[in-house]
C-alpha cells in the first residue's frame, strides 16, 4: 500500500469516528487556552482542568496574571507538574502578552514561541485551536500513534510533524491533531493498547500475538 493511500484510509475512518473532535482542556478565552496548554506540559489534561477554574477565577486575563507574584500563582497551581518553572513562565508570559501584544494572543507561531514556556508543540496547539492554522502538534500520543499506524518513521517530534503535514490536507490538520491525541490517550495506549475491535487493526504495523 502506498503511503498516500494509507493516509487517505486513516483520515477517512477518523472522520467517521470523530467528526467534530474538541480539545479536552477547559478554557474561556484565547489567553486561558494558552495558560492551560502551558500547564499541560508533562501533565494530564484532567489535572490541569482541576487547577484552572481556581486559577482563572483569580487571574482571568493576561493583565491580572501579570500582576500576580509567582508565590500567588503557586498557591493555586501547585499540584501541576513542575509548578515553580511554570508559575514563573506564566507570570513573565502574561507580562509580555500585555506589553508586546496588547493583551492579545498572537496568531504567529514564531511570535508565540518567543514567549517563556511556549515551545513548538504549545504554539501549534494554540494556533490550531484558536485560528485553525494548518499545523499538527506532536505530543507523545501523536508520536506513538503515527508510528503504529505507519504514518511516520520520524525519530523526533519535528520529523513526525513534517511527515503528517506532508500528507494530511490543510483543512483536516486541526482535526487530525485531536484525532491522534484522543485515539492515543484512550485507545492506542502506550502500555495496554485496546487492540480488540480496533478500527485500524488492518493498518497497524505492530505485531500482536
Task: Give an account of the 3D structure.
- With 209 residues, the protein is mainly alpha-helical.
- The chain folds into two domains: 3-22 and 138-186, Endonuclease Iii, domain 2 (Orthogonal Bundle); 30-131, Endonuclease III, domain 1.
- 59% of the residues lie in helices and 0% in strands.
- It is built from eleven helices and no strands.
- It has helices at 3-17, 30-39, 45-58, 62-67, 70-77, 83-101, 109-113, 120-131, 140-148, 157-167, 173-186.
- Helix 2 (30-39) packs antiparallel against helix 8 (120-131), helix 5 crosses helix 6 (83-101) and helix 9 (140-148) crosses helix 11 (173-186).
- The longest helix has 19 residues, at 83-101.
- The two termini are 23 Å apart.
- The mean pLDDT is 95.
Strand content is under 5%
CATH superfamily of the largest domain: Hypothetical protein, domain 2
CATH architecture grouping of the largest domain = Orthogonal Bundle
The CATH topology name of the largest domain reads Endonuclease III, domain 1
Which value, in Å, is the CA radius of gyration? 18 Å
Model regions low in confidence, pLDDT < 50 over at least 5 residues: none
CATH class of the largest domain: Mainly Alpha
Total strands: the figure is: 0
Amino acid at each position: 500500500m502506498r503511503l498516500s493511500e494509507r493516509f487517505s484510509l486513516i483520515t477517512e475512518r477518523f472522520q467517521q469516528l470523530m467528526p467534530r473532535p474538541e480539545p479536552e482542556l477547559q478554557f474561556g478565552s484565547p489567553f486561558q487556552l494558552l495558560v492551560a496548554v502551558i500547564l499541560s506540559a508533562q501533565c494530564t489534561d484532567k489535572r490541569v482542568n482541576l487547577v484552572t477554574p481556581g486559577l482563572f477565577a483569580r487571574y482571568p486575563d493576561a493583565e491580572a496574571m501579570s500582576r500576580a507574584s509567582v508565590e500567588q500563582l503557586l498557591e493555586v497551581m501547585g499540584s501541576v507538574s513542575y509548578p515553580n518553572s511554570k508559575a514563573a513562565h506564566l507570570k513573565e508570559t502574561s507580562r509580555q502578552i500585555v506589553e508586546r501584544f496588547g493583551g492579545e494572543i498572537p496568531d504567529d507561531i514564531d511570535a508565540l514561541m518567543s514567549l517563556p514556556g511556549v515551545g513548538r508543540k504549545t504554539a501549534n496547539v494554540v494556533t490550531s485551536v484558536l485560528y485553525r492554522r494548518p499545523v499538527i502538534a506532536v505530543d507523545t500520543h501523536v508520536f506513538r500513534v503515527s508510528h503504529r499506524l505507519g504514518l511516520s518513521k520520524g525519530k523526533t517530534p519535528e520529523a513526525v510533524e513534517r511527515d503528517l503535514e506532508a500528507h494530511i490536507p490543510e483543512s483536516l490538520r486541526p482535526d487530525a491533531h485531536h484525532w491522534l491525541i484522543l485515539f492515543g490517550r484512550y485507545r492506542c495506549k502506550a502500555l495496554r493498547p485496546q487492540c480488540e475491535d480496533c478500527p485500524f487493526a488492518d493498518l497497524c504495523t505492530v505485531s500482536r500475538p
